[in-house]
Amino acid sequence: MFGISFSQLVAPTSPLISSSRCFSRNKLVVKMTAVTNVKHEKLIESVVVKPPVHPTYDLKAVIQLALSEDAGDKGDVTCLATIPTEMEVEAYFLAKDDGIVAGIALAEMIFSEVDPTLKVEWFRKDGDNVVRGLKFGKVHGRAHSIVVAERVVLNFMQRMSGIATLTKAMANAAHPACILETRKTAPALRLVDKWAVLIGGGQNHRMGLFDMVMIKDNHISIAGGVSNALKSVDVYLKKNNLQMGVEVETRTFEEIHEVLNYASENETSLSRIMLDNMVVPQPDGDIDVSMLKQAVELINGEFETEASGNVTLETVHKIGQTGVTYISSGALTHSVKALDISLKIDTELALEVGRRTKRA
How much is the average pLDDT of 7-31? Predict the structure, then answer.
């Protein structure tokens, strides 16, 4: 049995800035306790990938909101009508797709919120492969509590597992570049979506508007050019005694030259240059990365580089071979296909139905 309590979520006091190729920021720490059950030799401790840090995100409140929108003002009327209050059952997590499982640690938090007496055991951990038909975990306790928690648990796990599965595929294909997500996450699920990216083997981009300066096209237009925007940022950071990563978006070689010239003549906090839409789609479905490769060579390791635009599972390998440090993809979170997972008390019947519908 494994347990996580919300009081054990400890946030570091300050984020770290790293210039390593695949950097990792301090994450919100989830401490877990484990009790070995000798009856299950294949039982796996759910040692999780730690969620990313966020100064104001309240994960417990998100869980409570998800449970509340399901329960409404009357609770689960079907359970109340059909399930004896003290009846205990055992339900198994069943994978109905091949992929990477994610959300196991979050599932434990949800079960604990619904009923702290529920006992959860796992045979896989966050980030592991699962195959269709595999039983990879179980929960034992009051039937009413399990059924009430079921849909909320699965909604989170299916989305997170879908994100982790796509991230894993893209991260493998992108090597030696590192794959990043963006801020194109589901509203109110920012931390959860970015946690799933970490579980899938990706890296996190900035968490929000507060933890990194990103100078994009609109900022540049309003500021009157790349140099003006960079100068304003450097002045602001120095005036407010702030230390954080700074990234600037470039779309042309001229803008790259302007950035490099500014950096050669000024003390700057700039750490990364985004190379936006320098991957050019071709009529035959291929991509031309010559502009991106030339841009990387021009920067010559002076700053980290990030490729953005026209990034798909089909194109990411070719982009990763250009020497770019990072590749960012909004599709990791905004176009995710959920991984099909169910929680079943009668698993034999569930498998029979799954085989009939080719989903198990």
Answer: 35
Helix, strand, coil percentages in the chain from 3-state DSSP, rounded to 5? 40, 20, 40
What distance in Å separates the CA atoms of residue 337 and residue 298, rounded to the nearest whole number? 37
Give the distance from CA 85 to its chain's centroid: 37
Q: Give yes or no for a contact between 44 and 37, defined as CB atoms under 8 angstroms apart.
A: no
Parallel/antiparallel/unpaired status of strands 178-180 and 326-328: parallel
By annotation, the residues acting in catalysis are 151, 184, 216, 249, 276
Dihedrals phi, psi of 172, to nearest 5 degrees? -65, -45
Q: Strand runs (DSSP E) across the chain, as ranges?
A: 2-3, 9-10, 29-30, 33-34, 88-95, 99-100, 119-122, 129-130, 135-142, 178-180, 213-215, 246-250, 270-276, 280-281, 287-288, 304-308, 326-328, 341-344
Cα separation, 291 vs 253, whole angstroms? 9
Mean of the pLDDT values across residues 109-115? 97
255 backbone dihedrals φ, ψ, rounded to 5°: -65, -40
By three-state DSSP, how is residue 230 classified?
helix
Token representation of residue 122: 């796992």
Q: Mind giving me the DSSP string for 301-355? A: TSSEEEEESS--TTTHHHHHTTT-SEEE-THHHHSPPPPPEEEESSHHHHHHHHH
Instruction: Output the six-digit token pair for 187.
Output: 């509203």
Query: Which of 126-140, 170-184, 219-233, 341-355 has the lowest average pLDDT?
Result: 341-355
Q: 279 — phi, psi (to 5°)?
A: -100, 115
Lowest mean pLDDT among 196-200, 246-250, 354-358: 354-358
